């Protein structure tokens, strides 16, 4: 679809802004109940010489294909349990409840890169390779065919040599482990086949869960020049319940519980040696997205979005979200309660963990809030992004995020972590997606470039736009209006490697 440009899109931006997210919640009479469950929809804003075109496609995952063929929900997702086939007789139905459901390949969380190829990913053992230009669905890739993991996150890290790092779980008779995986850079001069390739992937470190039957949920991790920091948080997975959850008729998110009787444990792993020797403990906290980590004068500094109430993850049910768009105004009080919980989540939005060894084996940890009270009027922040290519793992000054004054982001924020100064883009009725930074070609400063965000406008029919902000001033340079409704998505990347394509 062609778009209508207002203002100016800088002509140096060449490439595609790729975004992923849930896009379909109904099959026949069946409805998904949790926002994370919607069928993956891929979006591409192709930017070239000041013009923008938009395209989208549903991921043809097995889940999507099966659900479409049967016109009902066949595959269980995170918050929605697929019911047994109603055509089976009562005995078959009874036994079908004893089978452990297959993991979903509905990879609706992020676009990620391994060995030069694009994949869409979620938090199971499956990813899907995709064509970043046509958005065509390619092979299903099973992590467990390459390394001994049962799942991997949707937030890998990339080092400057081209290797990709991720984390995944494994469990067996010796316990539950959090594994750090390294996928090597693409081989130089090797003839590149058009197929999946995770060959050479290795587990470089296995961290044993502090309690085997109750491992922690994790969504991402951080990587500095020499370390990987993994946060073992008090959001616990009950493995016994996980095995039994179909019998109990519970969906997956109900086997995750926030248990603040546990401490938060920070595992530091030297990513060159794979060694993790010390556990650093802190008060219970909940985190989905970390921002950056870097080493400075013998300290490791880690910035992250976190909060003290991990109950929020259950709140992204579609029932709650529909309340938020005003469909059920009579339930506004219930929504306010929900919103208060978000404020408590965001009250310690960002912290720095500073560690100092006082005695051998003993570590004192503290944190600093990176914001002042000004942030509270924007409801705290999530979806943090930085100038990743140049500053990930290194001392940095700026990050970009969505302010969450609403259940969904309703502002864009730029934070200066040196001065705690905030710059804000916010207009009523506009809901921005995760802001992604793109550096200008001859950038000399960290914030020399633009920030891209997709803005949905649910109060208006068929009007969504790609917003281009000057990253330095955080003011609008231009927008590309698309005459369609686009669902609120999750994460995305800018693919600047396709200058000559259309
Ligand atoms: Fe995420």
CA-based gyration radius: 22 Å
Mean pLDDT: 81
The percent range for helix content is: 10-25%
What shape does the CA trace take? globular
- Report the total helices: 6
Question: What structural class do you assign from the helix and strand content?
Answer: mainly beta
Which regions are unreliable across 5 or more consecutive residues at pLDDT < 50? 84-100, 324-357
- Through-space gap between termini: 13 Å
Query: How many beta strands in the DSSP annotation?
Result: 35
| Hetero compounds | fe (ii) ion
Largest sheet: 6 strands, antiparallel
Notable characteristics:
502 residues, mainly beta, 6 helices, globular, binds fe (ii) ion, iron
In short:
This protein has 502 residues and is mainly beta. It is 10% helix and 39% strand.
Folded structure, characterized:
- The protein has 502 residues and is mainly beta.
- It has one domain.
- 10% of the residues lie in helices and 39% in strands.
- It contains six helices and 35 strands.
- The strands form nine sheets. Strands 1, 30, 31, 32, 33 and 34 form a six-stranded antiparallel β-sheet that branches. Strands 11, 12, 13, 14 and 15 form a five-stranded antiparallel β-sheet that branches.
- The radius of gyration is 22 Å and the shape is globular.
- The two termini are 13 Å apart.
- The model is unreliable at 84-100 and 324-357 (pLDDT under 50).
- It binds fe (ii) ion.
- Fe (ii) ion (FE2) is lined by residues 154-155, 219, 288-289, 491.
- Fe (ii) ion (FE2) binds at residues 154-155, 219, 288-289, 491.
- Belongs to the carotenoid oxygenase family.
- Keywords: Iron, Metal-binding.
- Pfam families: RPE65.
């Amino acid at each position: 679809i062609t778009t209508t440009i207002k203002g100016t899109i800088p002509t140096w931006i060449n490439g595609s802004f790729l975004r992923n997210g849930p896009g379909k919640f109904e099959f026949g009479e069946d409805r998904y109940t949790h926002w994370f469950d919607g069928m993956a929809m891929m979006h591409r804003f192709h930017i070239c010489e000041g013009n923008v075109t938009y395209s989208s496609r549903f991921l043809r995952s097995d889940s999507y294909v099966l659900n479409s063929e049967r016109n009902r929900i066949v595959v269980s997702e995170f918050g929605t349990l697929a019911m047994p086939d109603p055509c089976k007789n009562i005995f078959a139905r009874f036994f079908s409840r004893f089978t452990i459901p297959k993991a979903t390949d509905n990879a609706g969380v992020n676009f990620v890169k391994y060995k030069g190829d694009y994949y869409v990913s979620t938090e199971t053992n499956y990813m899907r390779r995709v064509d970043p230009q046509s958005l065509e669905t390619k092979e299903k890739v099973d992590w467990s065919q390459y390394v001994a993991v049962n799942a991997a996150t949707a937030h890998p890290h990339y080092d400057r040599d081209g290797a990709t790092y991720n984390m995944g779980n494994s469990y067996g008779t010796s316990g539950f482990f959090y594994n750090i995986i390294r996928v090597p850079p693409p081989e130089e001069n090797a003839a590149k086949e058009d197929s999946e390739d995770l060959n050479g992937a290795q587990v470089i470190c296995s961290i044993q869960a502090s309690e085997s039957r109750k491992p922690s949920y994790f969504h991402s991790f951080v990587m500095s020049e020499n370390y990987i920091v993994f946060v073992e948080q008090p959001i616990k997975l009950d493995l016994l319940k996980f095995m039994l959850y179909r019998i109990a008729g519970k969906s997956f998110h109900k086997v995750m519980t926030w248990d603040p009787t546990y401490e938060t444990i920070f595992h530091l792993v030297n990513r060159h040696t794979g060694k993790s020797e010390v556990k650093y403990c802190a008060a219970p906290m909940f985190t989905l997205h970390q921002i950056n980590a870097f080493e400075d004068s013998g300290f490791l500094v880690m910035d992250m979005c976190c909060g003290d109430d991990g109950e929020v993850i259950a709140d992204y049910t579609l029932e709650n979200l529909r309340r938020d768009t005003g469909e059920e105004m009579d339930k506004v009080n219930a929504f306010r309660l929900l919103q208060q919980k978000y404020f408590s989540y965001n009250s310690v939005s960002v912290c720095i963990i500073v560690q100092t060894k006082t005695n051998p084996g003993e570590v004192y940890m503290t944190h600093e809030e990176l914001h002042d009270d000004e942030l509270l009027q924007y409801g705290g922040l999530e979806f943090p992004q930085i100038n990743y290519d140049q500053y990930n793992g290194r001392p940095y000054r700026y990050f970009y995020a969505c302010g969450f004054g609403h259940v969904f982001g309703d502002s864009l924020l730029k934070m200066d972590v040196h001065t705690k100064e905030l710059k804000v883009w916010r207009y009523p009725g506009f809901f921005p997606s995760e802001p992604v930074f793109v550096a200008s070609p001859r950038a000399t400063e960290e914030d020399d470039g633009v920030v891209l965000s997709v803005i949905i406008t649910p109060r208006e029919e068929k009007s969504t736009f790609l917003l281009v902000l000057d990253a330095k001033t955080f003011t609008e340079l231009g927008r590309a209006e698309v005459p369609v409704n686009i669902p609120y998505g999750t994460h995305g990347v800018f693919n600047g490697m396709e200058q000559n394509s259309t």
